[in-house]
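Limitations

Structures in this collection are predictions, not experimental determinations, and the ligand pose is part of the prediction. Treat each record accordingly. The example that follows, with S-adenosylmethionine as the small molecule, is included so readers can see exactly what is and is not provided: the inputs are given verbatim, and the output is the predicted complex.
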Amino acid sequence: MNRAIERFKKFLSERLYAFQLSFYRAAGIGRTLAHALANPDGRWWLDPHHAPGVRERLGAFVALLADQFDPRRLHDFRRRVLTLDGEVVRAWIRTLQSQIRARQTNGARTVGALAWPTEARSKLAAGWLERELGTRAPSALGAGDEGVVFVAEGAVHKCFDTRRLSPERACWLVERSKVWSAARGLSSLRSTVHPSGRVVLSYRFEATRPYEGGHGDGLRRLLDALCRAGVVHRNLHPDNLRVADDGAVVLVDYGSDLAPASGEEIACMMRRAFLCGRYARHPELKVMLRAAVEGGDMPELAGLDAFVNGPIDATKETLLDRRLERMVRQRGARRVFDYGCGKGEVATALARDGVDVVGFDPDPSLAARWRRASAARFSSVREGLACRAYDAVLCALVLCVIEPDEDFEGVVSDLAGLVAPGGEVIVAVCNPDSVNRSTLLQRRDGCCDPTRTAVTSKTLRGPRPCPPPTGPCGRPRIARSSRCSSTRHCLVRACAP
Ligand SMILES: C[S@@+](CC[C@H](N)C(=O)[O-])C[C@H]1O[C@@H](n2cnc3c(N)ncnc32)[C@H](O)[C@@H]1O
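Predicted complex:
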């Protein structure tokens, strides 16, 4: 609470300075208008023949301004703000829930007020496009800080507000876009610079859907193409990206956020892109993206290296199977059980290395495939699973496909029964942030909202407490996923009982 009060006061004083600035501006406008009223000569708009009644109305308005924006009021207000008692803030914070509810209602009301200038700006820009560039029937796609984006006759036209994008920067962008012309996800640009200072960037329209995270390969491809063209995007955000039918991630924001690349800027773009991919729907994404620009350690960036340096078009085989095989080899396991082994590829690879491997999968249709993989032994019969004989027990992508609770618990208990004392169970589950939805594992657990976290944890109930890697015994058996360093799977390790 003390930290909240401290932060509140910090923001309050920042707002106070902004308020003072606006206050003096309004007072200045009042004084300028009062001066004009007192000296109407040469001001046609104060001439009663041109504008009957305007002097009276303006006079009343000037009086209102003088009253409202009296510097004595500001001094009094400033004193009250700067000496605000922490207890008042504390009491206010306690009412925060109801404050938020009230503001949500107010927010709904302001939409109409904000819609007017946006609509007027769009109309103005559409008229300008039609008149000056002969664009037929432009239909607004959206409006941003820099201008309004239209679609017309199969092309997108971003019509920048006057002087929002310099002609030089537009020209540079068009030149850079020739470098990335063959890359998927980036568009070839054309620019039109009007004598009035307005710039329009145009490119081919492509039907896409909103980007909601994931699509790591598409994102990497887009970033690589930008880097090859010597360009960075300084403001990557899920709203600036879309997804095409073929799964390509498409950039839809061309403007002053595209800048010449430097080492630090590229690193910053990668950090932001990684966060967009992993936390696209996270309510704190904005805060994370801002922190990523500042650099420094962020737990949310765990796995960034694999994203930046890992292969594009990685498959389950390259990302997960090879990794599981490495883990087993590194541990020097001699006897391995692959639980829910599927086609038995990992079991076969390990058996070829001389490891004694048993693969088990209850799906009887797999037997035909196993016969060809002779180096390992396979079974589809769920028997003899309590032997506690294996140094390593693998269970890859099984727990996230099991529906009934009893089956799930049965598998967990089988895993516990198979592993030898001192051995290790290695469980891989789908990464919900990569597959873009919660898996059966998270839904069963009920504790993990995939939009909020990439970490999945699951308590495994076992017959005996499990000794933690260091420290005394006595904790319950916990399988906790490491932060996912591959883009698609999480590894979960459980101790042997
Ligand atoms: C997505 S596949 C993964 C296969 C393999 N582990 C791999 O990584 O390629 C899931 C496997 O879990 C198996 N499976 C489903 N329910 C199971 C259960 N109750 N016990 C053991 N295996 C199960 C399926 O037959 C299927 O082969």
